[in-house]
Amino acid sequence: MFGEVFDYIVTGAGSAGCVLAARLSESGRFRVLLLEAGPKDRNPWIHIPMGFTRVYADPKVNWMFESEPEPNLNNRTLYQPRGKVLGGTSSINGMVYMRGNAADYDEWRQRGCEGWDWDSVLPYFRKAEHQERGEDPFHGTGGPLRVSDPVERHQLADRLIEAAIQAGLPARADFNNGDQEGAGYFQSTIGRRKRWSTATAYLRPARGRKNLRVQPMAHATRIVIENGRATGVEYVCGGRTFRARANREVIVSGGVYGSPQLLLLSGIGPAEHLREHGIDVVRDMPAVGAHMQDHFYVRLAWRCTQPITMNEIANSLPRRAAAMAQYLLFRNGPLASPGTMAGLFARSDQRLERPDLQFNFTPWSYASRDRKGAIAHPFPGFSLSAIHLRPDARGTVRLKSADPLAAPAIRFNFLQTRADLQAITAGMRLAREICRQPAMAPYVAEEIIPGPAVNTDSEFEANIRQNALSNLHPVGTCRMGQADTDSVVDARLRVHGIAGLRVADAAIMPTVPAGNTNAPTIMIGEKAAEMILEDAYTASETTRAA
Ligand SMILES: Cc1cc2nc3c(=O)[nH]c(=O)nc-3n(C[C@H](O)[C@H](O)[C@H](O)COP(=O)(O)OP(=O)(O)OC[C@H]3O[C@@H](n4cnc5c(N)ncnc54)[C@H](O)[C@@H]3O)c2cc1C
Fold first, then answer.
1. Span 8-33, average pLDDT
2. Residues with CB under 6 A from ligand 1
3. C-alpha to C-alpha distance for 162 and 140, rounded to whole angstroms
4. Would the pTM count as exceeding 0.85?
5. Catalytic residue list contains 273
6. Element housing 528 (H / E)
């Protein structure tokens, strides 16, 4: 028995889900239910830019997943924070605004995803955007998502950029016009000096709409499928189970872990795996939970000669209090900083056509960063992380149990190929080379991580196996493609073979773009909403004509 009836039900109020709920309810014509497993975004640390270090490991707003042991990383498990709150991971992420390389999207189209090449997706990046630098052919203004430069520059970031140029890289003012190679300041999804999550950007303006119901603390447990059509969603809220009907469509936006998990629980996935867990097979689809790709990350850190880093603030209660007062009174100072404020893109091998390495610079360094949080070094320090953007590694998301509230089993399978090891080693060597340039030399007291004992290829390899991490940009577990044998959704994001069901979030990406994944996911939300509305209006016209 269904309870309430809607036109669309969106499961998951994350980077994509908030966009969908806001756009689908915009005309006032359709009734929309947005289900979110987490709470409202009332935690004040969510909204303070540097507060992301506080929500990085807060179970009240974070799923705090842990991967299975990684065989090629000395069997270490990798911490996986994910937002469990309105705004999803856009409410806890590092706020870097990065779209990736134009060729990444052209490649999607070359894999059969018609309409997803760079020229076709650019209008949706622009539509979402309110770019503080103003409008140009690559950037939009007037959109819900605020994109800004850091409030204040940092002398270490200035020097780092200069050093990268001394090492032979070009200067870059805009990383979001399809080309990325070079060094410069990054932009962030920060507006009015606050985090601009998709809950802030899209849901807040839609709050008063009578045709939109946002239901926090509501965990979707199953998609109801009747005669090959998704007709509703079962969810648990306050310990009770509800069933809502979707007259038009169910849109799954639970993210790279939540979306495949919900499909599997609903009988859509590899048949054998479903049977193992006693789940009736609705459709055998091997690609659900397969083909997961993530960026591969390794951190380098240096002790700084001068007390100009954020470590000194993190390690001093009076300075933390002063930073908070400064932020509350003037909305500036260290807490208004985006954290990852500058960096560069480079190629691990000059024979490559486009950059496959990203380097993130932060004016702080930490001794550890895991589910216990990030602990700053007890001395001035800074970091330059090397990130391999196009690893060969592919992982999986599988059920550990048929309990819808249990965490899924996450496997990355990093370092399956020698090429992946070579690329990240080249990244570490380049980061070190940059910090040896004259512009940085006066600030370097010593290299802390990996440290001077690491020099040969085998020493780098041992260090990488012991320390490298997921860069928290996994995608692809419900990937888009032409056939149901190796993909889950078609180019209009419709689940193959099931009517009235789409997936729209980072899980549909066929391959990971070369850059942070929030902006691409918001673009997916925008494009998905437009396609869903197009289909709704076409269907109404067809009915009228008949
Ligand atoms: C710590 C961290 C830092 C990052 N930094 C950056 C950055 O600086 N820049 C950048 O571009 N990207 C960054 N990313 C990545 C980026 O934020 C994500 O790729 C993006 O937010 C994914 O969006 P999504 O819509 O696919 O999933 P999410 O935003 O995770 O949304 C999924 C939503 O669905 C909800 N949900 C899941 N299952 C259910 C269910 N069964 N029922 C109801 N609700 C459910 C979740 O609670 C969540 O709210 C970062 C990620 C992390 C973890």
1. 98
2. 11-17, 35-38, 56, 81-84, 88-90, 92-96, 98, 219-220, 253-256, 258, 262, 472-473, 505-506, 516-519, 521
3. 29
4. yes
5. no
6. helix 518-545
